Amino acid sequence: ESHNNIGEISKKPTKTKCQPVIIFSFFRESLAGDNSDIVATDSQKNTVYLLAKKHGIENPEKFALLLANHFLNQYAHVAEAHVHIEEYPWERIAQEDSGICDNNYSSINNRHRHNHAFIFTPIAQRYCDVVLRRTDPKQTVISGIKGLRVLKTTQSSFVNFVNDEFRTLPDQYDRLFSTVVDCSWEYSDIKDVKFCQTWNCVKNIIIRNFAGDPNVGISSVSVQNTLYLSEKEVLDVIPQISVISMTLPNKHYFNFDTKPFQSVAPGENNEVFIPVDKPHGTIYAQLARKDLKCHL
After folding, report:
1. Which of 271, 285, 277, 275 lies closest to 223, judged by CA?
2. Is there a shared CATH topology between the 1-134 domain and the 139-296 domain?
């Protein structure tokens, strides 16, 4: 793990966890007990730290490419390098101008920011995978979003689905829609890609198709349709992305039935909901441009 710009109060720090995985030719090492081609994991770890110190980390994708190229160029017997990087977002702790208590600290923007203390602020986790093969000139670069948890309280429905002897779920004309988005995409070309801008663009497309305009929202006829619209817009907007996949598991919240408790809480209940983890569906789809192979 490496810190960037921790001492400079004018810049936002990030913390990046790097996990380089290298594929070797294992014949001599495994069968003959010859260690002469093994690069120790300690050496791999030191390489990550030293290259981070020497070159800095502009974004996960560029640093992963730097690491993968280093291992292939440094060790002639390495056939493939696979680097996985996860970014840990940190923000400077900010002091409130006013509040119930004096010196009330939070991460709200436009407040006085702390000189050396930080708070972990993961709206979603950014990650990437880079795979370089000595026998293949194409660089495989996959970026992704994990753990983007979203919820909206209306404008979500699910009706007119299969009605047979196994069905008990009634049509849902208005329901809570909650999910945790996992999304990954592969680049066909990285020559002119701005990785940070693209990652934020994909995240914003997903949120916009989920939530819609702040004043009027957007209707979702199903989780499947919302997922498809998000993936299609990403491919329409970002030509360098060749394939994208998303997983949206149902994170259901059901109305708590207050009818048996009218003496305690009279009236209909539209405010208190029960989180239900199981059973639930996991909605997955992959959208790709025609005639392209993917590595997702």
Report:
1. 285
2. yes
